[in-house]
Write a structure and sequence with these properties.
Helices cover 31% and strands 23% of the residues. It contains ten helices and twelve strands. The strands form two sheets. The protein has an eight-stranded mixed β-sheet with strand order 6-7-8-3-9-10-12-11, with helices on both faces. The radius of gyration is 21 Å and the shape is globular.
Length: 313
C-alpha cells in the first residue's frame, strides 16, 4: 500500500544556511494492507518528520513515497484532495486540532462541505451518529460542546471518527495517546486495532516501546533520521540486535527494581555531516569500522539491522 524508498529530509542550518541537518536519512520501509507499522525512537529521531512527509505537510528532499503506486510528492490540487480521501493523520495534541471558538461539530461540518456536498442532511446526520457511536461517543453529549469542555480522550476519538467518515485506507497516528491518561490509552489502542481488523493500514508513531509491542505487526527503530533496525515486531522485541534497540529495551521502567542508567562516554563525531554509524558517539561497542555507515542486512527472515557487529567485516 505505502512504500517509502530512500526518503530523506534535509534542512539548511547554521549561519546563512551553510550546513545541513539530515532529519531523515535514506529511510526505506513498507506498510502493507491491513498492517500496523510502528516508528519507534527518541525525540528528534525523525518519526514525525516522516509522518508529515507522507501527509504532504512538508516537502521531501529526496527519495520516494508511493501510495498504491501513486507518487505522493507529485500530487497537486484535485489529485491531492483525492489522496486525502484515503490518507489522513491524527496527532499528539488533540486540543491543537480544534479552533477553540467553534464547537466540536464544526470539524464534521467542514468535512461534509468539502468531501460530501451532495449528501442530504438527514443521511449525513445518521452517518455521523453511527461513526461517533462506533468510537464510544454519545453524539448528543459531544457535538454541542466546545473543545475545552471535552477531555483529551474525547477529542482524540472525535478525530478518529473523522477518519471513519472519510472511509480512509491509511492513517498516520502520531503519538496519538501520549497526552491521554492510562485508562483512556488502552481504549484508543483497542480502537486502532479494531480499525485494522476492518482493513485500515496504520503508521503508528511512538516513543513508547510497550505501545509499539502491543499494537504493531512490524517495527522500525529510528535514531537521528536513520533506520537502525526493522522487521517483525515479535522478532525485534524478542531478539533486539542493534545496541540502540537494546538500550531502548533496557530503559523501560520496571516495577520490581530501581532503574540505573549506565553512563556511556561519548565519542566525538567527525563533523556535522557525519558519514559513519548514526549511533557511533553513544555506542559502547563502537570500533573503527563504525566510522563507515553500515547498511541494513537481513540477519534472519523478516529482521534487518544496520550494525557492523552483526555483519561480516
Amino acid at each position: 500500500m505505502l512504500k517509502i524508498d530512500n526518503l530523506s529530509k534535509i534542512y539548511k542550518v547554521g549561519t546563512f544556511g551553510g550546513q545541513e541537518l539530515h532529519a531523515v536519512d535514506r529511510a526505506s520501509f513498507d506498510v502493507e494492507d491491513g498492517q500496523i507499522v510502528s516508528l519507534i525512537g527518541e525525540s528528534g529521531s525523525g518519526k514525525s518528520t516522516i509522518g508529515k512527509m507522507i501527509l504532504g505537510l512538508i516537502p521531501i528532499s529526496s527519495g520516494d513515497i508511493s501510495f498504491n503506486g501513486m507518487d505522493v510528492a507529485s500530487l497537486k490540487s484535485n489529485a491531492m484532495k483525492e489522496y486525502y480521501r484515503k490518507v489522513q493523520g491524527v496527532f499528539q495534541d488533540p486540543f491543537s486540532s480544534y479552533n477553540p471558538i467553534f464547537k466540536a461539530d464544526r470539524v464534521f461540518a467542514l468535512i461534509k462541505d468539502e468531501f460530501f456536498p451532495d449528501v442530504d442532511d438527514h443521511e449525513w446526520s445518521k452517518k455521523l451518529d453511527d461513526c461517533l457511536k462506533s468510537v464510544g461517543l454519545n453524539p448528543e453529549i459531544v457535538l454541542n460542546k466546545f473543545p475545552h469542555q471535552l477531555s483529551g480522550g474525547q477529542l482524540q476519538r472525535l478525530l478518529i471518527a473523522r477518519v471513519l467518515l472519510l472511509d480512509i485506507q491509511f492513517l498516520v497516528a502520531d503519538e496519538v495517546i501520549s497526552m491521554l491518561d492510562a485508562s483512556t490509552r488502552i481504549d484508543v489502542l483497542n480502537l486502532l486495532a479494531d480499525l485494522k481488523s476492518r482493513g485500515l493500514s496504520i503508521l503508528f508513531i511512538t516513543h513508547d516501546l510497550g505501545l509499539g509491542y502491543y499494537i504493531s505487526d512490524q517495527s522500525v527503530i529510528l535514531y537521528k533520521g536513520h533506520i537502525l533496525e526493522k522487521g517483525l515486531t515479535e522478532k525485534i522485541y524478542s531478539d533486539p540486535s542493534h545496541p540502540y534497540t537494546k538500550m531502548l529495551m533496557c530503559s523501560v521502567p520496571r516495577l520490581d527494581r530501581k532503574w540505573e542508567k549506565a553512563i556511556v562516554e561519548l565519542k566525538p563525531e567527525e563533523s556535522v555531516n557525519w558519514n559513519g554509524c548514526a549511533y557511533y558517539a553513544r555506542c559502547p561497542l563502537a570500533f573503527d569500522k563504525c566510522r563507515e555507515k553500515p547498511s541494513l542486512i537481513e540477519i534472519s527472515q523478516g529482521h534487518f539491522v544496520a550494525c557492523w557487529k552483526r555483519s561480516k567485516v
